[in-house]
Amino acid sequence: MRLVRTIAELREVLAKERQAGSIGLVPTMGYLHQGHLSLVEASRARDRYTVMSIFVNPIQFGPNEDFARYPRDLERDCAMAEAAGVDLLFYPGADEMYPTGYCTYVTVEGLSERLCGRFRPGHFRGVTTVVSKLFHLVQPQRAYFGQKDAQQVAVLRKMVRDLNFDLEIVVCPTVREPDGLALSSRNVYLSPAERQAATVLSRALFWARDQVQAGERRAAVLLEGMRRMIEAEPLCRIEYLEIVDAESLEPLDRLSGSVLIALAAYFGKTRLIDNVLLEGV
């Protein structure tokens, strides 16, 4: 595996590799877990050369968020990425991605203001800006993302369509702990009690999924049942709980088509997100 820290070296290496076959990109913020590695596995199955980026992107964090304490461990991440079969690890600094005087941003209007966007203003502008730069620099045939970040996927798909990026967004299933908790780099923040309490999120989502499979289509009924389950956990504070169209992210009264049941919640100071995607409802 090759570790690259500069845009110039990245371009030099990939100019040669691009001629030899397809390139897959796995963008991350590091502190890797099995969810990230499942994206690498998907890329290696379809692409000749796999690029992973690790960049804790400062412009997608708000002023009171966890940028400073976001977990970082390059040595650990390098070992995991190499063992998983990553060919090139791009690890730029903030000055490399946003040099002095940087003032250009990419915004997907509408989708970016829903769900998480209501509570994290500017977050998705940071995401779409850095991902568009990575797409431009790497020029992959495919880019791999996890279903856990469902809104991010919807926003990036819209960006790819609107800006005519010649690549495919590949979405891989959420990877979970045996007790249902979605893997997240932020799980390391949780105390033992919070870690146990956090399983209420997947339990509520799976309950709603089962109700839909049994024929329930009324969003209000599903939301009320989920809210009761989650609010019974005293360590959890709900930020949002919504049932929306999976592409437009518009709220639904009755479920039909492709449906996303999404939530965000706090356990202490730790914010977690999760969702289930229901196709063909």
Account of the 3D structure:
There is one protein chain. This protein is α/β, with parallel strands linked by helices and 281 residues long. It is 38% helix and 20% strand. The strands form two sheets. It has a six-stranded parallel sheet with strand order 1-4-3-2-5-6, sandwiched between helices. The relative contact order is 0.13.
Tally of distinct domains: 2
* CATH architecture identity of the largest domain: 3-Layer(aba) Sandwich
Percent range of helical residues: 25-40%
- Could you report the average pLDDT, rounded to the nearest whole number? 98
Query: In oligomeric terms, what are we looking at?
Result: single chain
Structural class assignment: alpha/beta
Our Rg estimate from Cα atoms comes to 19 Å
First-to-last CA distance? 43 Å
| Major sheet: arrangement of strands | 1-4-3-2-5-6
CATH C-level name of the largest domain = Alpha Beta
CATH topology of the largest domain: Rossmann fold
**Total number of helices:** 10
Order of helices and strands: EHEHEHEHHHEHEHHHEEE
CATH superfamily of the largest domain: HUPs
Shape annotation: globular
Strand content: 15-25%
Poorly predicted spans: none
Tally of strands: 9
